[in-house]
Specification:
Elements: E1 5-9, E2 15-19, H1 30-51, H2 53-61, H3 83-88, E3 101-106, E4 116-120, H4 121-137, E5 145-148, H5 157-169, E6 172-175, H6 181-191, E7 195-198, H7 200-212, E8 224-227, H8 241-249, E9 254-261, E10 266-270, E11 277-278, E12 284-289, E13 302-308, E14 319-325, E15 327-328, E16 340-341, E17 346-347, E18 352-354, E19 357-359, H9 361-368, E20 374-383, E21 389-397, H10 402-416, E22 421-425, H11 427-434, E23 445-447
């Protein structure tokens, strides 16, 4: 079953949204995909000029004639949208009457105050379709049963999207929510789900619980997991430390990465070739920018910049996500010809300059996740009296010896050339820091700069 979603011109200069169903665009030649996206871009610009107070103002202030934006390359002539814009002018981005708003969600606030997003009924259909495509990309069918191990409340867009996408595909869904390994295993034993939607580090907690309670997890019904929130692979597509640890323990479990954000209202998901997350060309245009906002080459890391297609409530034009990725233009052996993204290397706002070395938090996570006696941790970055970055890692460990602290520092020196300050804390203390009451995600990085 194939689908297509997009904006189309309607009567008297207005735009109407509707579903068409046409995902075979993914396997069309690259030139045809580009032409298709450029048609949708022109429709999006018309919609923004007519209904977005924010972009009407931007177009007027910069003397932008949207009829001259005909190709994806022409996007470079348009101003960028930032997280600060969303925070300062949040309501100006809303393009619909309040009576059309069905759902209110917020961003996680990783790099600042959370931003409210509004979704119409059409936007919810688009969200459902996106996750239908994602589940289809990882090979799910109506014969699968999904165990949803993420929250569906707390103004979290993704949890609702996963449920709706699974429903559109025809999968059964067990909405367990996050945490509580005992309940997760009870559900697996009762309902026999075949696929999990989960933060990958939580899989290690499932394994730990199973081993303590004599559960043969490799013989369970769970055969694959779609993983969010944490990287599983290096830019050359090899499993990173966390991915390796899961695979060594649970080799029968296939791990698929998916990357998304509230702002883009769509996702990039790996296929069974495990060589990057696939763009859904009906839903989003993506650019990759350097520090000067110029396009980077394929072998260079760049900031992900997105333009949404088919969003009715709060569409975005050239929005800088802050996420740093590599991208790949070569066709995938799965048959798709879409752009692929690597795992996120880090957030631009979280870049650390430590003793002359540039670091991103995921590189530090990868080292700590590989150390047997490190049970939990949180990384704090602050500005010292000299005005430079300082790193303190608080670690919950059953070994608090000076020898183990030295081992940790030596590991950092061998992997990233520098060693942070180490402080041992209780497991409970770290756990409270990692999961504050208002958080939807485990907090492993705290920026105090």
């Amino acid at each position: 079953m194939f689908c297509h979603l997009g904006l189309i011109p309607f009567k008297a200069g207005t735009i109407k949204f509707f579903m068409e169903k046409h995902p075979e665009i993914q396997v069309k030649p690259a030139g045809e995909i580009k032409k298709y996206q450029e048609e949708k871009l022109r429709e999006t610009l018309i919609y923004l000029q007519q209904y977005s107070a924010f972009y009407k103002k931007i177009f007027a202030e910069n003397n932008i004639d949207i009829t001259k934006i005909k190709h994806i390359e022409d996007l470079q002539s348009l101003p960028l949208t930032t997280k600060t814009d969303l925070q300062n002018y949040n309501e100006l981005f809303i393009c619909v009457d309040k009576r059309k708003i069905i759902d209110y969600v917020t961003t996680s606030g990783t790099l600042g105050d959370p931003v409210t997003f509004t979704l119409t009924s059409n936007d919810l259909d688009r969200l459902s379709y996106n996750e239908y495509l994602s589940f289809n990309t990882v090979g799910c069918t109506e014969n699968d049963v999904l165990q949803l191990m993420t929250t569906i409340d707390r103004r979290f867009m993704a949890g609702l999207a996963y449920f709706m996408g699974a429903r559109e595909l025809g999968m059964g869904v067990a909405r367990v929510g996050n945490g509580i390994p005992e309940l997760q295993w009870d559900t697996i034993n009762r309902i026999h789900p075949t696929c999990g939607m989960v933060v990958p580090s939580f899989i290690m907690k499932l394994i730990e619980f199973a081993e303590k309670n004599g559960i043969d997890y490799n013989a369970s019904s769970m055969k694959k997991c779609v993983c969010i929130g944490e990287s599983l692979r290096t830019p050359d597509f090899e499993l990173n430390t966390l991915g390796q640890r899961i695979h060594e323990k649970w080799p029968s479990l296939k791990l698929f990465s998916t990357y998304a954000s509230t702002e883009m209202q769509s996702s990039f998901t790996e296929c069974g070739c495990f060589c990057g997350g696939h763009l859904q060309p009906e839903l989003i245009i993506v650019e990759f920018l350097d520090d000067n906002n110029n396009l980077v080459k394929e072998d260079e890391a760049g900031e992900v910049c997105i333009t949404t297609l088919g969003v009715e409530g709060m569409p975005l034009l050239r929005f800088k996500t802050g996420d740093i990725c590599y991208h790949y233009n070569t066709p995938c052996t799965c048959g798709r010809n879409t752009i692929r993204l690597s795992s996120v290397l880090g957030r631009k706002g979280q870049m650390i300059k430590y003793k002359g070395t540039t670091l991103y938090p995921p590189a530090l996570f990868d080292i700590l996740d590989n150390m047997f006696h490190v049970k939990n941790y949180v990384i704090e970055v602050y500005t010292n009296e000299l005005g430079t970055d300082e790193i303190l890692i608080r670690i919950g460990s059953d070994d608090k010896s000076e020898a183990f602290a030295k081992e940790i520092k030596d590991m950092f020196r061998s992997k990233v050339r520098v060693a942070p300050t180490i402080a041992f804390e209780s497991f409970d203390y770290i756990a409270k820091i990692q999961m504050p009451l208002t958080s939807r995600k485990v907090v492993k990085f705290i920026d105090l700069r």
